[in-house]
Amino acid sequence: MSHDPGHDHGAHGASRSRLLAVICIVLAVFVLEIVGALLSGSLALLADAGHLVSDLLGLLVALAAATVAARPPTDRQTFGFQRVEVFGALVNGLILVAVSISVAIGAVLRLEAHPQVQGGWMLGVAVLGLAGNVAGLLILRGGAKASINMRGAYLEVLGDALGSLATIAAAVVILTTRFAYADAIASLVIAVLIVPRAVSLLREVVRVLSESAPASTDVAAIRRHILGTAGVVDVHDVHVWAITSGAPVFSAHVVVSPDVFARGRAGALLDELNGCLSHHFDVAHSTFQLEPAEHAAHEGDTHR
After folding, report:
1. How far is CA 43 from CA 108, 109, 159, 163, in A?
2. Which residue has the higher pLDDT, 132 or 201?
3. How far apart are the first and last CA of the chain?
4. Domain boundaries in the chain?
């Protein structure tokens, strides 16, 4: 399958535009929550503001990664710089873990104190913060499906939205029951909600960096499709990995019948195989080595 560089540049350009818009929104919400935390004495707002700092760092990392990833391939970086997005997602995941730990520690310490929290300020700021979070999620939603880097940014903002919801719930409890410890409990909830998303993101990063087959790719089904192609006798030395999320790469040695070479059908067979992987399995880049049976017989066990 031929890869379209123009499509990549367009996608990365859209990603950068989305990220810049969300960075502006997050920065505005951060300032709002800092002011609100000082006025209300709310740890939950302060914790969410701290999470927003991590979001800003994560979004800036994602923006830098998307910018670098748009650069064209070179003789050194033959697949281009798309994998930079994976490193950006790795940094985002680690930031999420660090924030969840710091928020949890702060919440536990707050539970041992006697907090004074102004529920009205806390509620108003949290509602405005949630509105900003929802706007950011809507902007990032499209890009999160195609890029692990954008997914990391999306999860950062989603964590903020969940944090705002927890803060709103705590503010309502404080206003209705005067139970000030609801603020610290909301902070713990925020920390707990962050961890599963961070682990999920880091698991996907590890899968890409370890060059495992993408979770959505059925290698056995690809083998069956190749073997079902006219002229194919066997397939071996199969490798499937991903440069970044949404960009699977495939290579294989394909043993063909003698008439494929005798009749000059090698080019047509390659087109058919590439088309099969492109249309049925959405493989971004595939490479096939066509070989006669006598060549496959002496390749050795390392190529099976």
Report:
1. 11, 11, 16, 12
2. 132
3. 24
4. 5-209, 219-303
- Beta strand pairing status for 248-256 and 232-242? antiparallel
User: 5-209: which CATH topology?
Assistant: Alpha-lytic protease prodomain-like (1.20.1510)
Contacts of 278 (CB under 8 A, 6+ apart): 1, 286
**What does the alpha-carbon distance between residue 268 and residue 260 come to, in Å, rounded to a whole number?**
9
Kindly report the length of the chain.
Answer: 304
Measured CA to CA, the distance from residue 192 to residue 99 in angstroms comes to 11
Mean pLDDT of the chain: 79
- CATH number of the structural domain 219-303: 3.30.70.1350
Which pTM does this prediction carry? 0.68
Helical H runs in 178-264? Answer: 182-209, 219-227, 258-262
d(CA 303, CA 27): 53
Q: At residue 190, does pLDDT exceed 50? A: yes
CB atoms within 10 A of CB 13: 13
Tens-place pLDDT, residues 130-180: 898 899 888 888 766 666 767 777 877 887 787 788 888 888 988 888 887
Among 11-15, 45-49, 227-231, which range has the highest average pLDDT?
Answer: 227-231
Question: To which residue do tokens 């391939």 refer?
Answer: 73
C-alpha 291/C-alpha 273 separation (Å) is 14
Pair type for strands 285-291 and 248-256: parallel
Helix (H, G, I), strand (E, B) or coil at 216: coil
